[in-house]
Design a protein that fits this description.
single chain; alpha/beta; Rossmann fold; GMP Synthetase, Chain A, domain 3; seven-stranded mixed sheet; 10 strands
């Protein structure tokens, strides 16, 4: 309430959540939203698309743009994801750079700092994540910021959080709302994400597969939702899982279909809860050599162009 008893004007901001891959960006976005809007996995490059999570409270609305993590790119898809990560920092109201403070700064962390120092965004927050672990390398991150040219006019707000335990999240939300400007909400208050449902379904299936697959296979899996048949008793969803080599097909299916069955059984209840309808999945594995160079498939998976 304002001094005269009127309700304080509401604020709104688009927040670009960026940083190195596996810094905990998706976990942070999910924690701030209060619901799962972005998949989480210890495998690098888990987030491949730009996902918007929406935080609405009495102060206003924050639209959190979760992005692919910056990493050492290998192949055309890796370069595409890095391009998406860099582009995501443009046109946002607040830039939120997430660092895994339980590890010393890496090259990609220093790269984000150099970019911030060079471009000098008007509103910037440096989030030291995973501060529930020990040790915390805060001093090294601050020294890296100084070495990158920090302190020459731009002073980002530093915050310490643990997206996993919730430590520091209320303070981070306070900082973001303080930086936000007065303005109308971009979405209805009951919406937590505007992520296309085909991409959301594909992401959940891929998350379940990532939990069972190791080595090079997770990075060479593409998941595309081919069809959603809406029936009275629920949705029947046809999903194709692309791999590059015949040997990978067997690994994704698993002995006796074990891995594929696990992914379906784990994904279906989560998707049913997410969409409020019964979801039944049909999963197919297809060998498509060099699918990561196929523009049509990349567009179908939402990595470039329009979703088809």
């Amino acid at each position: 309430m304002s001094a005269d008893g009127d309700e304080a004007p509401k604020k709104a901001a688009i927040v670009g959540v960026v940083g190195r891959t596996n810094a905990g960006k998706s976990t942070l976005v999910n924690a701030l939203v209060g619901e799962k809007v972005s998949i989480v996995s210890p495998v690098e490059q888990t987030t491949r698309n730009t996902v918007r999570g929406i935080v609405s409270d009495p102060r206003g609305q924050l639209v959190l743009v979760d992005t692919p993590g910056l990493h050492k790119a290998v192949g055309p898809l890796g370069r595409l994801l890095n391009g998406m990560a860099r582009a995501s920092s443009a046109g946002v109201d607040i830039l939120c750079v997430v660092f895994d403070a339980s590890h010393a700064p890496q090259l990609e962390d220093e790269g984000w700092m150099a970019r911030v120092a060079r471009e000098k965004p008007a509103r910037c927050v440096f989030v030291l994540n995973q501060c529930d672990k020990s040790p915390v390398f805060e001093t090294m991150y601050r020294d890296s910021w100084t070495a990158a040219g920090g302190g020459s006019g731009l002073i980002p707000v530093w915050t310490r959080v643990s997206a996993l335990t919730g430590e520091g999240l209320p303070s981070l939300a306070d900082v973001l709302f303080e930086m936000a400007e007065v303005g109308p909400a971009l979405f209805d208050d009951d919406i937590v994400t505007d992520y296309p449902r085909k991409l959301a379904i594909a992401d959940v299936v891929r998350e379940k597969l990532l939990s069972k697959l190791f080595q090079e296979v997770p990075h060479e899996i593409g998941v595309a939702v081919k069809d959603i048949a809406e029936r009275k008793d629920g949705w029947e969803v046809s999903v194709t899982i692309y791999v590059n080599k015949p040997s990978q097909k067997g690994m994704v299916i698993g002995t006796g279909g074990k891995t594929l069955k696990y992914a379906r059984k784990a994904a279906e209840p989560e998707l049913s809860e997410m969409f409020g309808v019964k979801v039944r999945l049909e999963l197919w594995v297809k060998v498509e050599p060099h699918w990561m160079k196929n523009d049509r498939l990349l567009a179908e998976m939402g990595y470039q162009g329009a979703l088809v």
